[in-house]
Amino acid sequence: MIDETTELYRVCDLPAFDQDAHYNCEEVHDGQSGFHISLRNRSGKTTTLLWRDNVLSYRKTEESDRIKLMDQMDNVGILGKKLIFIENSHYISWLKEQNYIADYSGIQLRHFAVLSSNDIIEVIDYDEPEIINQ
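^ that's the sequence the OP posted. Answer follows.
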């Protein structure tokens, strides 16, 4: 049964992002120039997901520590995809509970999960990332 507390997973189709590539996470950087995740594919090319402003929150977890997430993605047929959008996010709910000052009503926060060969990097922000291929 799906209700408002059930997380929903879908592929986040952004132009120029190869959902089927095998990526290693090269860098996660949070600085004055924004937030970015750099991924390298097997042919040595780099794909960077860039949020030009700082993001609201992020976390990086070893893939082996998120087996439940992987099972849930497998159940909906998207295991193996590399950029996922999570609706009804428990992470966003937790973030809202932690903040007594900010009023997020009427604001659409987005929860992205970037999956590399060993890591899952989750990002909460208002905007989608810019994709830069090099």
